[in-house]
Amino acid sequence: MQRHDETGGCVAFNEDLSDWDAFLRDWPIERLRSMTLAEYATVGDKRCFTYLVERGLDGYGGMRGGTALKFGIYAHRSGENDEKRQENVTYSANYAWYSRFGGDEESVFQKVRDEVAAIAQAAVKGDFSPVDSSADDGLLWPVFRSKIAFLYQDRSAPRLTAVLSPQSLRRFLGLPANDATPITQLHARVLQQKQAGESLIAFSERVWETAKPPEEGGTFSAASAMDYLSRRFPGSYSGTSHLAAYRTPSGRQLAFDPGSNPAKKIAVQIFVDAVPPFGSALTVTEYPPEKSRNHHLKSHAPALAAGERAFSVNVASAEALTQLCDWYDSEISQTAPSSTSSIVMPINQPLNQILFGPPGTGKTFHTIDKAVAILDPAFYSARNDEREPMKQRFDELTQEGLVRFVTFHQSFSYEDFVEGIRADSEGGSLQYRVEPGVFRSICEDARGSSQIASDIGVREGARIWKISIDGTVTSTTRNYCFNHGEARIGWSEAGDLMNENLSSVPAYAVLGSNDRSSLHGFSREIEPGDVLLCIGSEDKFQAVGVVQGEYEYQASPPAGVRQDYVNVLPVNWLATGLSLDIRPLNDGRKFTLKTVYELSRFGWPELAEYLEAASVSLTKGEHEVAKISQPRVLIIDEINRGNISRIFGELITLIEPSKRKGSVEALEVVLPYSKKKFSVPDNVYLIGTMNTADRSLAGLDIALRRRFVFEEMPPKPNLLGTVDGIDLQKLLTTMNQRIEVLLGRDYLLGHAYFIGIKSVADLKDVFQRQVLPLLQEYFFEDWEKIALVLNDHRKAADHRFLSQPGNDLQALFGKEGVANSNPRWNINTKAFIEPESYLGIYSAAGPAP
């Protein structure tokens, strides 16, 4: 079966080993040691070593594609186009090689030949260390080394699979793209899953199928982008956990932030040095020289760093990435546009909108599309007809803190939405604090997004923690922590705080509640991206840092550190030597004696503003904080079920576009509990949903109506098909026409109830469990009108969903009797399984006799 390999070639996994056997007979180790340059590489010679290994034996491991420089030296056609020649490559009449390898072809080939023979000889002896060597340790590229070692290994006890790309092996094992496990160890772990009796080639094909890259049908992500770029531009990777940078053969740089979980990030912003000619199909943002950006670019892609003109391209698919690289890898000079404005797809979404309609019309469903269109318009434009990627992108944006969700109800209040007072036990006493609600929180995050920057590591929703490192007096331990990027606390007698049986450790069990709380918070609650304030006194802090990683227990602290300070967190100390009062931030309160605890009265936005006002730089000189105005989306489900005046309070005016911060008529208010000034940023989008069956649009709060754009979500019968001869489109259309006449258009049935129906059995479940109960609610159990909607009066008795049993009132009540003012109705369960019952809803047949 043919498969494309990861460098663009075509692989036919071949379980017939005769070609492999023939190769080993023709190319024993002795011949490798004495082969000539012509035997190694000659244009058009299918018997030369490089052709055989790359193409003749690609059924035993694909390595086609890329540049022929992977062979160390390669044969080129005489008169090769000068325009295609690279500056760092030397060309003789018939061969080419990297200039750093030497000045003449024979001396370079001798090095290549020695390396080839050494790899093969080592593989025969079971030594695969050459495969793990870095790309700079020899003349051959890693993929070529792997193929040689694979071919010469002992097939009865294989150490390598025929899947030569380490990225494929990482995908098979579920490892991140930047995992540093040596190649031979990856193969060893993969081979552990080889089944008894399964041939090496068959197993390799299974590994390849499982680890198929996005361009072969896999899911696109930041991890797969790193995978592709590592294969497209081998040996060029440079970066950190916050940046992956690459170079084309001509030296052009490109880079992006893979995020904290590259496998889950399904769109990337790639920095390039010019605007792609197909930029209208993507979101492209210009970065003029003076505009700040990811500071890691300075070290790993300086041509794209601050001080240089660059462009950020949103890429959300393997096809878009390939197209971008095809253009970027070309030798044609690119010319950037003269405009210095950002080239961004417009966000054609109102700041405040409500999706309204009857039940089942997809209002909540469409909030996902609306949110993605606002937060990632390029992804929406490229993938809006693909539901699964759209939902995955929405979940990713939600995980990043860019989307919040809340449901209004009768008990929901201003205190839940904006801010309220909550009781809290801190330092052993009951205290009351102001806690922000969901709306104030998202507004503060949106305002803080111009201050929070990925290059200093503060995460969305970061928690602020107080920490005392060896008290407040001068301390060598604290100085060591500041100088070595650590935060430490003591209690060594408790041992490793991640011990599952910690509570049973005697030294831990005797600690007081504050000490146990400090240890628990330090080891289990503080997360990477949280902020630490190291105290200098009871009312001042002396340092600000961002947590960089997970808790570590270090049984033997280094020299100069208190020997009981065994509990460690990695921290990037942004500023030290401070003496700033905590009380303006902390509602007038000083620090308590507890070693570690969360400072919950303020967040990162307030802290960043406070530090900025105190002229404290968080960027250590050359680092610049990126000014990013990232939008936020708040989805308010069932917005009409809450008391709008009570929930929004005075903020109902501030959500108007013309009253938002930054506008000419911007307003701000003083919040009643916190007494803080507050305004609504212009990058907070409100998306509400409204079920018209709960309350008609006419009865909605007038103040809300004039501040929101309303988009009707009507039923869409055209999305429905036919099931077992029943036309669902006609069925829904006819029922809704009757409901509109009898009750009004606010009470129609949505198409969502009928999406996914594949049989009469499915239709039965929908009618019994959803449609009929909804009609009962609509018509207040007026069964006669429900029967009219179902057209029961014009069906045969067996096909009526509802029926009226005969009433013998005299038998029930005696001779006196009662007026038959409340006739009884029965539900005919047998009718729900008959197709004729549903066909009769939209047919015009007369009543049965």
TrEMBL record:
GO terms for molecular function: ATP binding; ATP hydrolysis activity. Residues 628-708 form the ATPase dynein-related AAA domain. It holds the Pfam family AAA_5. InterPro entries: ATPase_dyneun-rel_AAA, Methyl-DNA_Rec/Restrict_Enz, P-loop_NTPase. This is McrB. It comes from Solilutibacter oculi.
